[in-house]
Amino acid sequence: MAEITLAKAVNQAIAEEMRRDETIFLIGEDVAEAGTPFKVLSGLVEEFGPERIIDTPISEPGFVGIAVGAAMTGSRPIVDLMFGDFLFLVMDQLCNQAAKTHYMSGGKLTVPMVLRTNLGATRRSAAQHSQSLHTLVAHIPGLKVALPSSAYEAKGLMKTAIRDDNPVVIFEDKLMYNDKAEVPDTEYLIEFGRAEIVRPGRDITLIGTSSMVQVALGAAETLAREGISAEVIDPRTIVPLDEDTILDSVRRTSRAIVIDEGHRSYGVTAEIASRIGEKAFYHLDAPVQRMGAMDVPVPFSPALEDLTVPTAEQVAERARLCVRGEVFDAA
Amino acid sequence: MTADPKTNRQGYLRMYRQMVRIRVFEDNANQLYLAAKMPGLTHMYSGQEAVAVGICEALRVDDKITSTHRGHGHCVAKGAEFRPMFCELLGKAEGYCRGKGGSMHIADQDNGNLGANAIVGGSAGIATGAALSARRAGRDDVTVCFFGDGALGQGLLYEVMNMAALWRLPVIYACENNLYGEYTRVEEMAAGELTARAEAFGIEAHRVDGQDVLAVNRLAQDLVERARKGEGPFFVQLDTYRYHGHHVGDINRGYYRSKDEEALWKSERDPIANFGRWLSEQGIAGADDLAAIDAEERGAAEEAVAYAEAAAYPDAGEVAMHVHAQTPALRAL
Ligand SMILES: Cc1ncc(C[n+]2csc(CCOP(=O)(O)OP(=O)(O)O)c2C)c(N)n1
Ligand SMILES: [Mg+2]
Fold first, then answer.
1. Residue A129 a catalytic site member
2. pLDDT tens column, B20-64
3. Residue-wise pLDDT tens digits, B135-174
4. Greatest C-alpha distance within chain B
5. Across the interface, do B122 and A96 touch by the CB < 8 Å criterion?
6. What is the pLDDT at residue A327?
7. Of the candidates A14, A226, B31, B35, which lies 20 to 30 Å from A251 by C-alpha distance?
């Protein structure tokens, strides 16, 4: 075991896979010598050369489209999309082309590509560099969507994403690049569609994704001191979604809060909460709660921005209300 | 294409036959629509045959193409068969895409056709990526990106042409200027010269009569061979005309183009009739030979239509198949 940063974990995953498989290349803006603005890819061009770590012009739809075509013809491209906010520029190539090609061709063509990008607010970057847009792509059949919550997940999920024969979008929390976690020295993969019970508990289930796993763990810690036992679940991939692990947990604890950094409305929290409502309703002792980013463009001012994302204290407070049966008074 | 026509008799007859195949395919597809036997609408390639055939006859099976909503011609020209094509048009299980793609999404990867595309300009990235794949893998296959004049309005095309030029990719951008995008003239949508767009990136650009299969083929042979050697990318403007409406349901066209204009292209500039006449003049094929080809292909198309009409629809169980590809377990661990 070694303690490494999330950035290093991503870097290692890509390097290991590129050593294993010649057909993999990486393409994006400032990915080579610069190693991306977050320095996640530093050192890769030195090992693999500019033919495999390809710097592009600032043409997101163009290089995503090129990756789709390359993936259809024997390559396994990894696309680096500098900010998750730029997904809006590449939606046609990702959602109309990559996502649909396998289905529309009756299974003849495959698009084994990874699009790695990021999510997360509170970096004081304002509304066009702070969004968590995984819901957008999770809505489109044909894509898979992974949300690593630590260096361990980041490495294992990235390696699996690269080996998957489908277009996979993987969102890293840009605030977590320097967070460290234990990572095995030996090779490992994390299977898609397998949620992790990060912390077992009895009284309430906190389902958190990506950055919100930390928030849920923080809340669980606080609650434990008050005698409330919270189970924390990290779905790790939202497409495919490990519904069974979530439902099993909620049937045991009878209460649930879903926490995700996407906007609260029409998002991941709505999806997971409604599945719990549909399939575990008679096990519930409290209405399923949802916590996400406020439905506002992310504001710049720290005084405002910090209000938009759920905190551990807010999650703990909501959990107390659920456990006390007072949730109807919640804001 | 060799200089002496007689030494390439087979090649010429094949080009003639391929153009006839496209025409009869479209005539039958149109009939299926008129007889209310076809689900949805479709876009006829009739009139533009010399473009697809002239180019695809310069390609190998392992060369790639990407195609458009008006894609039947490219598909036939790249080697597709009638039965699975008509099955696809009718949404049958034996279609090239098991009925899931339909007219606007036929893909035939065994023949290097990476698929038609219902997003105007949507395949420009795919074609360029296929060329990048080939280059990286050390293969010498070439990709041709077919698109209409309308796609010149799409930014994606300029992004990928820029990258193709920077990286000298083996891709040929084939712009079929049939003078209209839907119901609007090209002059109203594209400022300046069409070829100038590519030239701005330092891409060698050509303009050719898209009704002259020999001229198209001669140019294509040259550019494909050069692209194979790493001299690409290239851009070609092919001047052509679609005989039918924008789609089969576009019957009353008077508000955007005249009957006289249509008649002139059909009578003076038909790629099949003109090539047939040339074949006769050169003594390569007599009127009887050509009529025999016409009859054979018309028969083949009618047989394939009957086959497709009788063919089975996909099982209901297929609706949820192929959303995701199954990743082999070995690769997973
Ligand atoms: C991005 C996009 N915008 C609009 C359309 C609707 N549309 C379908 S075909 C077409 C015209 C395309 O013209 P052109 O590229 O010249 O091809 P042609 O039909 O002449 O073969 C339009 C506007 C579309 N399919 N995709
Ligand atoms: Mg046109």
1. yes
2. 999 999 999 999 999 999 999 999 999 999 999 999 999 999 999
3. 999 999 999 999 999 999 999 999 999 999 999 999 999 9
4. 66
5. yes
6. 82
7. A226
Domains of chain A: 2-183 (3.40.50.970), 196-324 (3.40.50.920)
A297: number of Cβ within 10 Å: 13
| Amino acid in position A86 | F
Tally of residues, chain B: 333
For residue B248, give Cα distances in angstroms to B30, B100, B102, B317: 6, 20, 15, 31
Amino acid at site A315: V
DSSP 3-state assignment of A263?
Answer: strand
Residues 6+ apart with CB under 8 A from B300: B21, B24, B82
Tell me phi and psi for residue B25, to 5 degrees: -60, -50
Tens digits of residue pLDDT in B116-126: 999 999 999 99
Contacts of A116 (CB under 8 A, 6+ apart): A10, A78, A79, A80, A81, A158, A161, A169, A170, A172
Eight-class DSSP state of B108: B
- Which domains are assigned to chain B? 5-331 (3.40.50.970)
> Ligand 2 centroid to B148 CA: how many Å?
5
CB atoms within 10 A of CB A118: 28
State the Cα–Cα distance between residues B246 and B237, nearest whole angstrom: 20
Question: What's the Rg (C-alpha) of chain A?
Answer: 20
* DSSP bridge partners of A291: A259
Q: Cβ B130–A70 below 8 Å, yes or no?
A: yes
Q: Which 260-299 residues of chain A touch chain B by CB within 8 A? A: none
Rg value, chain B, Cα = 20
**Annotated catalytic residue A60:** yes
Mutation to test the A interface, candidates B126, B160, B171, most A Cβ within 10 Å:
B126
Phi, psi of A262 (to 5 degrees): -70, 165
SS (H, E, C) A159-181: HHHHHCCCCEEEEEECCCCCCEE
- Would you mind telling me the total number of residues written for chain A in this entry? 331
